[in-house]
Design goal:
By secondary structure, the protein is of the alpha/beta class. The chain has helices spanning about 50-55, 90-95, 110-120, 130-140, 145-150, 160-170, 190-205, 215-225, 240-245, 250-255, and strands spanning about 15-20, 25-35, 40-45, 70-75, 80, 95-100, 180-185, 210-215, 225-230, 235-240. The strands form 2 sheets. The protein has a 6-stranded mixed β-sheet, sandwiched between helices. The chain starts with 12 loop residues before the first strand and ends in a 5-residue tail after the last helix.
Length: about 260
């Protein structure tokens, strides 16, 4: 995705008056937010409030589902992603996404890591040594290299769920994204797996802007620096995570973080 400036934007993601409809149903209503680089921002709120829909706006994946209408503006890395000159392929290289359940491909660990790079670069763009370096760097970044360096030809689908989710994150990194979106990335994991994925996410935040959707209030409190609370397609409150949980300004926010509904 081409950027309009070579300077680092003050905000990695901004929306202004964003509205989205699935057919006749309006899922997002006048959403205006600013997400800062170098932080982990959590989208929280009850089921159906629009968290995942908003997340999917940032790389325009909602458009895959058909019958979607969007108005307003979404600026990512200083560029309005709805401008006519935006390439969806380039946009999705800049903005990686991790889904609720790990989705490794039924090929080797090695080829999983390189899969996106092979799609987005010309054939022969890198040699075997460079490919090896990409794989090692990505697996080191997600804390898998020591575990898997002797098993790179093993099918990725044989890994544990935690390893699979880390591998899915590793698959994004050779593309050098600037933003990583995570939709309930720990929902399929046990307590130990959740803790290790949260540690990994925290370790990645200095290189990437990370936005995470979570229903887990403990995870939002532990893993994020800022929280955005949504209700019925609208933004109710956006502040530091500490303020969200200790001194929320809106009564609906207080009810939600105290577990009284949702």
């Amino acid at each position: 995705m081409e950027k309009t400036t070579t300077t680092t934007p003050t905000y990695s993601i901004q929306t202004r008056g964003l509205n989205l409809w699935y057919g006749e149903f309006q899922a997002l209503k006048d959403v205006s937010i600013r997400i800062k680089p170098g932080l982990i921002t959590a989208l929280i709120g009850p089921s159906g409030c629009g968290k995942t829909t908003l997340l999917r706006c940032f790389n325009r994946i909602n458009e895959r589902y058909g019958n979607v209408t969007t108005t307003g503006e979404v600026t990512v890395l200083g560029k309005n992603i709805y401008d006519a000159d935006v390439s969806l392929s380039e946009l999705r290289k800049s903005i990686g996404m991790v889904f609720q359940r790990p989705n490794p491909l039924p090929i080797s660990i090695y080829e999983n890591v390189l899969f996106g790079t092979r799609i987005h670069t010309p054939r022969g763009a890198f040699n075997r040594r460079q490919a090896d370096e990409l794989v090692e760097s990505a697996l080191r970044d997600v804390q898998l290299w020591d575990e898997l360096k002797d098993h790179l030809r093993q099918k990725a689908t044989r890994l544990t769920l935690e390893q699979q989710q880390k591998l899915c994150i590793a698959r994004l990194l050779p593309l050098k994204p600037r933003v990583i979106l995570m939709d309930e990335p720990c929902s399929a994991l046990d307590a130990e797996g959740i803790e290790r994925i949260e540690e990994l996410i925290d370790g990645l935040r200095e290189k990437y802007t990370i936005v995470i959707v979570t229903h887990n209030m403990g995870q939002a409190r532990r893993a994020s620096h800022e929280c955005i609370f949504m209700l019925m397609g609208r933004i109710v409150e956006h502040c530091s995570t500490l303020d969200m949980f200790l001194k929320p300004k809106h009564p609906d926010t207080e009810m939600y973080v105290r577990g009284r509904y949702g």
